Amino acid sequence: MAAAVRGGSVYRLNTVAPLSEPKPTLLIVDDDQTLCAMLDEYLTLEGFAAVTAGTGSEGLELLVRSPVDLVILDVMLPELSGFEVLRRIRTVSRVPVIMLTARGEEIDRVVGLELGADDYLAKPFSPRELVARIRAVLRRMGEAGGGDSLLQWGPLRLDLRARRAQVGEADLELTSAELRILELLVRADTRTVSREELQQQALGRRLLPTDRSLDTHVSNLRRKILRHSDRVSVQGVRGAGYALTLSAPPAQE
User: In this structure, how many other beta carbons lie within 10 angstroms of the beta carbon of residue 49?
Assistant: First the structure.
């Protein structure tokens, strides 16, 4: 409440407090109740709103009833596995998903990324690291609406505000990481973008020798484009990074 002075008297002026930004809502799907409670408390302190589910079926029901901004999904779940839950999510939603995998199970990470996960984290993990991954994924989603949101490169068309990518008339069902990688490559035209830059700009963390998630994302992106067009390709440049290449359209007879 503000104050104003008139003729030596103080009058109180009613003021309206500014609306606070809505908290991003996270859905945690994990059968470890202790872990869920700990994450709920920690993420709330970090400025998020969290809801939890102990099974994949419960998680899917919650997602249908109340859309969320991001899903944290454990691979090892009773009834439905995390992979099956992710597959079902991807049939109806592009909501970002971070998979929780067993440490050392690289195949789980690869399968999760191929099914459409945006990122993964191996158990046991630091809550601070999870928050960093969450913010990196949400930041990618938010950046899609800024700057030049409509991009064209050969038959590729990107509407970043709508988070939509097309090749020709076909929609590419991309994760947030795949869309960000494609955006960086399109903006670079035919120039090579280093793996270090793609890792930092698209995944929000520095490149480590044992981290193959970038290569998996690029492989998925390449496969999705090739499904609809053989003119555009994401080429690996040995020792340098990745670049887009475009072949000429077939000659008209």
Answer: 14
- CATH class of residue range 150-246: mainly alpha
Report pLDDT digits (tens) over 156-209: 999 988 889 999 999 999 998 999 999 999 999 989 999 999 999 998 888 888
Residue 237, φ and ψ in degrees, nearest 5: -105, 110
Cross-strand pairs, 233: 245
Measured CA to CA, the distance from residue 120 to residue 99 in angstroms comes to 4
Question: Considering the entire predicted model, what is its pTM?
Answer: 0.76
CA 253 to chain centre: 44
**Cα 50 → chain centroid:** 17
CATH of domain 25-143: 3.40.50.2300
pLDDT in the model for residue 106? 79
In degrees rounded to 5, what are phi and psi of residue 74?
-80, 145
What is the distance between the terminal CA atoms of the chain, rounded to a whole angstrom?
77
Tokens of 155: 């038959």
